[in-house]
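Notes, Module 5: Reading structure tokens.

Key idea: the token line is not a picture. It is a compressed description, and you learn to read it the same way you learned to read a sequence, by spotting repeated patterns. We will look at two proteins. The first is printed below with its tokens.
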Amino acid sequence: MRRLARVLAMVMVGLPALAQTPNTRLIIRAQRQEVNIRTGIITVTGNVKLDYPARQIQATAAEAQYFTRERKIVLRGDVQVNQLGNTIKAETITYLIEEGQFTATPKANQQVESVYILDDPDAANTPLAATTPVEQVKPRFKQLVSPPVDIKTE
């Protein structure tokens, strides 16, 4: 446990901007975490939960890598990212911290799903489409104009 604390302390020394302000913390929880001090890469696997309060980002994934030198986070495996009510679901999502940019890629033959909360002040003033109540489910048939004719076949 002491060794892990020393490794994490060494990583944090290499990341002074992140260590100085509590607002810029990147919180990562997972079943397994590895830190490579030479490369500056933190790899986490198993039920990954990421919280980046400075950017109001929460994410879940099967695994993630944080590239400290490039300031990049790569999430893989059933990824879901939430930011200010907006969501992205994909197989892989890369987040470039400096640019504030997400790049998402789906599984083969699937699509990325995004839900965005739009600021549309005119939408509040636009009435919703009126719905007409259904009065009769069955179609009405035409009324007979003449009495039925008995057709005899020979």
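Here is the second protein, with the sequence above and the tokens below, as before.
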Amino acid sequence: MKHRAAILLLCLLAAAPAAARDALRLDRLSDAVPPFTLEPALGDGPALELDDLAGRTVLLHFWATWCGPCREELPALQALADRLEATRFALVLVAIDDTATGAEVARFAADLGVTVPVYLARTSTVSDRYWRWGVPVSYLVDPAGGFVGRALGPRAWNAPASIAALRAIE
């Protein structure tokens, strides 16, 4: 009986990323997560690398200050981060602005209530293939470091269904 319960639990855990991908309407990705090193917008902390996030579910979100849907989505992303356990979930916000200074990007995010760190793509080593589709674009990465999927365009990240889907793979 214990053996069957263990097998059932493993099956449920293996299905969680696929269920989250479906619930969040994410595109399936089969390639590996490209490595990155991200620099904080204000230059006031250590760089962040993909390996630093190992063991956590990661929502890697690319946005810009000039993007209308991004302006609406950032508060929902902050609300999501506030609802999920930080030791098991990481929200990584990466601004792709070419002309705004780090201080302007950080102030823009703060004015929208964002308190998680904000990173700049242009001062970092991150492939533009992450956002060549446009912004906003988000990537969900599982705790093992593999893609769960990609969300092109805004999502209701703080909706109960979104939170439940992310908790299922945390």
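Summary for the second protein:
- The first helix runs from residue 2 to 23.
- The beta strands are 37-40, 48-49, 57-63, 89-95, 118-125, 137-141, 147-152.
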